[in-house]
Write a structure and sequence with these properties.
There is one protein chain. The protein is α/β, with parallel strands linked by helices. The protein has two domains: about 15-45 and about 295-395, Alpha-Beta Complex (Aspartate Aminotransferase, domain 1); about 55-290, Type I PLP-dependent aspartate aminotransferase-like (Major domain) (Aspartate Aminotransferase, domain 2, 3-Layer(aba) Sandwich), CATH 3.40.640. The chain is built from 13 helices and twelve strands. The strands form three sheets. It has a seven-stranded mixed sheet with strand order 2-8-7-6-5-3-4, sandwiched between helices. Helix 8 links the parallel strand 5 and strand 6. The longest helix is centred in the last third of the chain and has 22 residues, at about 295-315. It starts with 13 loop residues before the first helix and ends with a helix. Bound molecules: pyridoxal-5'-phosphate (PLP). Pyridoxal-5'-phosphate (PLP) binds near residues 108 and 133. Pyridoxal-5'-phosphate binds near residues 211, 244, 250 and 255.
């Protein structure tokens, strides 16, 4: 019997039918098509650093190749790397994990996927602060879990509040995902509030999964902070980390999870039946990133800070646009009016119109659960930010391009 494989008749699993292609990828692809045709796109789309991976990290990868470190590795990562993750996290973020409580994953995304797939049963509820990173709801739905959104508000700098977490908990709630600094809002949860959120999770018996992907990109007087540094946190906290943004290594696919040993063992079991291990050469590069100098991180942070000031003031100067000052990460998340500056904007329409009429690439806020907002990445040069702001001003003021 033939298996129908034509488009439209192919019978797919319920699990894969429950999820969508990442909408941020869709926008990037449209912008790439225009660029390939030679169009000058002001691109605020990319969720990745515009800096190259630091030289010393690249050299470590080249050395690994020359030394033929090109074979399978242990599923959870080479032991020196698991040690280095724990040491780096302890030194920079004040935790106290051992290598058995650490798994190396293909990016932070796979760390989050492994956690959810290891903990969530059909019908389990997962609390997701909204606006949210696009992948959380899909990853939860893949496991037949139920995403439950906890609103965060621009008037409160999009800060997640312990009282709102507590109100959203039901007998079916299994886990809360916290993401500070936040993609897309740039919100940073103050340490005191984070501690209260942890206290709620512990009292109500739910896991706190903390996505620390942007941990080192915080502005002003804030310092990188991990909820795992608090006494007694480790039993109920899971850390998902990534080298993608901190070390400008998005393409290398290197992340990790830190969690109680039994959960790490489950994730290693899962990983043994999927990716097997993170690319061997990436692991040696990551070892250098974590053990080597961190000067490049400070350089990137200072530059993002300059760009943040430029983009926030530029957006606020456009009539009808409201922009909260991001406290971390590298995104601005303004609330915008419709084209021409009148009425309430529908971000999906606006993003399409912006690309079409002004060749400006942004990600519609609808992808993050906030349909009146746009996400603009400022991981792009000051000159490109200025050019993009000129076009955005023209678009929202109603002047023709
Ligand atoms: C909030 C957040 N978490 C996790 C990730 C995953 O990053 P990666 O898989 O490249 O480590 C991203 C990437 O954009 C992100 O924005």
């Amino acid at each position: 019997m033939a298996i129908a494989a034509e488009v439209g008749t192919l019978r797919l699993s319920d699990a894969v039918n429950r999820i969508n292609v990442s909408p941020t990828m869709a926008v990037l692809m449209e912008a790439e098509k225009l660029k390939a045709r030679g169009v000058d796109v002001a691109d605020f789309g990319p969720g990745e650093p515009d800096f190259p991976t630091p030289e010393h990290i690249k050299r470590a990868a080249i050395r690994a190749l020359e030394e033929n470190r090109t074979k399978y590795t242990p599923t959870g990562g080479i032991m020196p790397l698991r040690e280095a993750v724990c040491e780096w996290h302890a030194k920079n973020l004040g935790s106290s994990y051992t290598p058995k409580e650490c798994i190396v994953t293909a990016g932070g995304k796979l760390a989050i996927f492994n956690v959810i797939a290891s903990l969530i049963n059909p019908g389990d509820e997962v609390l997701i602060p909204s606006p949210y990173w696009v992948s959380y709801p899909d990853i939860v739905q893949f496991s037949a879990g139920v995403p439950k959104f906890v609103a965060t508000l621009p008037c409160d700098k999009f800060c997640l509040r312990a009282t709102d977490v507590e109100k959203a908990i039901t007998p079916k709630t299994r886990l809360l995902i916290a993401n500070s600094p936040n993609n897309p809002t740039g919100a940073v949860i103050p340490e005191g509030e984070f501690a209260r959120i942890l206290e709620v999770c512990q009292r109500r018996g739910i896991w706190l999964l903390s996505d620390e992907c942007y941990s080192h990109f915080v502005y002003g007087s804030a310092k990188p902070f991990s909820i795992a540094s608090l006494p007694g946190a480790k039993d109920s906290v899971i850390i998902a980390g990534s080298l993608s943004k901190t070390f400008a290594m998005t393409g290398w696919r290197m992340g990790y999870a830190l969690a109680p040993e039994a959960l790490v063992a489950a994730m290693i079991k899962l990983q043994s039946q999927t990716v097997s291990n993170v690319t061997s050469v990436t692991q040696y590069a990551a070892l250098e990133a974590l053990r080597g100098p961190m000067d490049s991180v400070a350089v990137m942070l200072a530059e993002y800070d300059r760009r943040r000031a430029k983009i926030v003031s530029g957006l606020r100067a456009i009539p009808g646009v409201e922009c909260t000052e991001p406290q971390g990460a590298f995104y601005a998340f303004p609330k915008v009016p419709a084209r021409g500056g009148k009425g309430v904007g529908d971000s999906t329409v606006i993003a399409r119109e912006l690309l079409e009429h002004e060749h400006v690439a942004v990600v519609p806020g609808a992808a993050f659960g906030a349909p009146a907002h746009l996400r603009l990445s400022y991981a792009t040069s000051i000159e490109r930010i200025e050019e993009g702001l000129r076009r955005l001003t023209r678009f929202f003021s109603g002047a023709a391009a």
